[in-house]
Amino acid sequence: MAFVYKKKKTNVRLGKNKGEKYIVATSNQGRVTDAELKEFIQRNSTLSEQDVSLLYRSLATIIEENINLGMGVNLKNLGVFSPNFRTKGSASVEEVTTDNIEKVVVNFRPATKLRDAIDNAPVQETRKFKLKHE
Amino acid sequence: MIQYTIEKKKVNTSAGEEIKYYPKIVRATTMSTDRIAELLEERTTIHKAEAYAFLEAFAKGITHYLMEAFVVEAEGLGIFTPYINAVAVDTLEEANEKSIKKKGVRYRPTSTMDTKFGTIKFAKANLDSAHINADGTEGGNDSGNQGGGTTPGGGNTGPDGDLVG
User: Fold this and answer.
1) Contact at CB, A118 and B36, closer than 8 angstroms
2) A44-66 pLDDT per residue, tens
3) A60 and B76: CB-CB below 8 Å?
4) In 3D, which of A98, A88, A89, A93 has the Cα closest to residue B20?
5) Tens digits of per-residue pLDDT, A9-37?
6) Interface contact flag, B78 A78, Cβ < 8 Å
7) How far apart are CA B137 and CA B21, in angstroms?
8) Would you tell me which residues 21-80 of chain B have a C-beta closer than 8 angstroms to some C-beta of chain A?
């Protein structure tokens, strides 16, 4: 299996390279659900279905709890999840209050192993050439 | 509760360059995989070694599906989406592997996680360790854990973390 891509027709409106162009984009092969991911984990470990479900639920809770405390969470070979703010600025220090924090967002920084795996994944063009405007 | 300090930034607005002050997250330490395995052991009847094996299989599973260009939806955690950055080219034939600049993964927290973030409480960190003093002058930063965002010096240039001027 490979990282599947498709070709798309696009209209570039900015920069030096303006006009009608063609571009390569990811051709998502579908959505992997929780159940499929749990099944994969079960196949790749000695854990039972119940254990996988229990650990899965607990992991999500632990990550959420730690993010809510302002802590980052490092999952080996996957990446680091860390909280951050979406903020708006004020003209003076005194004006800065919690109201300036519009939202807490979670950043994800992929681990080197994940980045390398994706970077080195073989690419393959999707068999169906379906251009957006055709 | 999440603590914040105040950060001074130069921003470009339609009126020109302005100085603005922004709250900046004081990030506590990052929890290691080993510690997560310990917590999993504490909260379940499963041994730490098995919890660790689960975490490894979890990462392996997400990587496996992303490499096959699947979108991975991990309930309670978020959605991982593979993407390609490519150069726009003039002809259909030129649009091939060679025009790919980068492959990567995007992450979006689940909507339930997003909703719960609305209930988080914030507290201003002690000014002694803040970036900006009350008079607007730059102060020390001895926490060593600040930074944040995807750009040096804090902030976030991503779609979820744009600074609003």
Assistant:
1) no
2) 999 999 999 999 999 999 998 88
3) yes
4) A89
5) 889 888 887 889 999 988 888 899 889 99
6) no
7) 11
8) 21-33, 36, 39-40, 43-44, 46, 50-51, 53-78
Strands A3-12 and A19-26: antiparallel
Domain that holds residue A55: 32-69
**In which domain, by residue range, is B72 found?**
2-129
* Helices and strands in chain A, H and E counts: 3, 7
In a domain, residue B155? The reply is: no
Q: Give the residue carrying structure tokens 């990550």.
A: A63
Give the separation between CA B109 and CA B79, rounded to whole angstroms. Answer: 6
Smallest Cβ–Cβ distance between B67 and the set A3, A74, A105 belongs to A3
* N- to C-terminal Cα separation, chain B: 25
Contacting residues for B72 by C-beta, under 8 A, at least 6 apart? A31, A32, A37, B61, B62, B65, B66, B79, B80, B81
CA B135/CA A28 separation, integer angstroms? 52
Inter-chain touch B30–A74, beta carbons under 8 Å:
yes
d(CA B21, CA A100): 10
A27 in any annotated domain: no
Considering its fold, how many domains does chain B have in total? Answer: 1
Tell me how many domains chain A contains: 1
Question: What mean pLDDT is predicted for residues B108-124?
Answer: 76
What is the CATH number for B82?
4.10.520.10
Identify the residue with better confidence: B23 or B145.
B23
Q: Does B160 touch chain A (CB under 8 A)?
A: yes
Q: Among A73, A77, A98, whose Cβ lies nearest the Cβ of B30?
A: A73
Which chain B residues are within 8 Å of A40, Cβ to Cβ? 57, 60-61, 64-65
- Distances in Å between the alpha carbon of B66 and those of A48, B20, B106? 24, 40, 10
Prediction ipTM score: 0.86
Residue B1 sits at the chain A interface (C-beta within 8 Å): yes
